[in-house]
Amino acid sequence: MRILYDAGQSVTGADDPRLGRIDVVLLTHAHGDHIGDMKMKALEAGTCDSPQLVSAAPSSTTAEVVAAKNAAIIMVAPLANFIGRKVETIRGKPTGACPQSGDDLVAPFAAPCLALVMTGGTRTVKASAASKGVEIATVPAVHDSTVPLLLMMEAARKALEPDNVSFTLGPPIGYVIRFTNGLVAYLTGDTGIHADMQAVAHDFYKANLIELNYGPNALNPEGAAYAVNTLVQPASVIITHVNEGATSGGKVKPTSRTAAFIALVKGRPVYPALSGKTMEFDGAGKCVAGC
Ligand SMILES: [Zn+2]
Predict the structure, then answer these.
(1) 85 Cα: distance to centroid of ligand 1 (angstroms)
(2) Distance from the CA of 29 to the center of ligand 1, in angstroms?
(3) What mean pLDDT, rounded, does the chain reach?
(4) 128 C-alpha vs ligand 1 centroid, how far in Å?
(5) Which residues surround ligand 1, an ion (CB under 5 A)?
(6) 96 and 198 housed in the same domain
(7) Can you list the pairs that 46-54 forms with residues at least 24 positions away whose Cβ atoms lie under 8 Å?
(8) pLDDT of 31 higher than 90
């Protein structure tokens, strides 16, 4: 099972050779750096701090990838329908609901398809030959989901401009993915600290891996460390979405905000998300390869 989470602006589009096969595309909210209103001009164009980007409007990297890979769209309904329409425009045919076998979606899919959820909803995706599926649940996040104006059609965009108001595509979310080996990954999405990190991700799902989005407009180092040490208490941490040039030669820079966070995390390893590096985790959330 290959799942793409928030394709964002860090791909060249559907033709990005690093993507390979994609069965499911997840998207936590509509912000441009997640939906992918821009895309990389070419692989390695620019620097990590300042990549060279070009517009992905009026589509988005998310829709491009879904369309090209025949992926399932597992997102909250307003966002899924928005992406589904863009996929429809790319392909020239409607984006239908994902076929199901009982309660399970069965991958690979013959065409891009919709698997809508609401916050808290769950979808199970099974590889056709497998006995067990991967469970993908949406969980709360405290953020926003304003869509970039340039991804809207002109009529809608023009209607919003006079009042300088924005348009929101449902609530922002995170995901919890229960893999068949026992790994339970909590993908926070962009979020501030909230009580459901403990009630939902820790108490209920017992997440043993957190992939934490660490944007400076949502979490300071102390808040991020509190979320990890006290609320979620996973076995391992992947730190991502750091909005800074946090590493040099694959090592975290000691003066970075990322280093300040790592210094506050107790009793568990923190792995920066590095381009081109694949990590493998066992069922207990312990990194066993590529760490
Ligand atoms: Zn955001």
Answers:
(1) 22
(2) 7
(3) 96
(4) 34
(5) 31, 190
(6) no
(7) 47/245, 48/245, 48/247, 48/275, 49/244, 49/245, 51/9, 51/10, 53/9
(8) yes
In this predicted structure, the answer to whether residue 169 has a pLDDT above a threshold of 90 is yes
232 shares a domain with 162: no
Residue 240 inside a domain? The answer is: yes
Instruction: Examine the domain organization and report whether 105 and 218 are in the same domain.
Output: no
Are 22 and 110 in a shared domain?
A: yes
Cis, bond preceding 17 (omega within 30 deg of 0): no
CA of 198 to the centre of ligand 1 (A): 21
d(CA 49, ligand 1 centre) in Å: 18
Statement to judge: residues 45 and 164 lie in one domain: yes
**Cα(203) to centroid of ligand 1, in Å?**
26
How close is the Cα of 7 to the center of ligand 1, in Å?
A: 13
User: Count of domains in the chain?
Assistant: 2
Q: Within this chain, do residues 82 and 200 fall inside the same structural domain, yes or no?
A: no
Please give the distance, rounded to the nearest whole angstrom, from the Cα atom of residue 151 to the centre of ligand 1.
16
Distance 50 CA to ligand 1 centre (A): 18
Residue 243 sits in which domain range? 181-291
The 3-class SS string of 3-57 reads: EEECCCCCCCCCCCCCCCCCCEEECCCCCHHHHCCEEECCCCCECCCCECEEECC
Same domain, 165 and 50: yes
- What's the pTM value of the predicted model, to 2 decimals? 0.97
Distance 145 CA to ligand 1 centre (A): 7
Same domain, 111 and 3: yes
127, 143, 171: which is the final residue of a domain?
171
What would the pLDDT profile of 221-260 be if each residue is shown by its tens digit?
A: 999 999 999 999 999 999 999 999 999 998 999 999 999 9
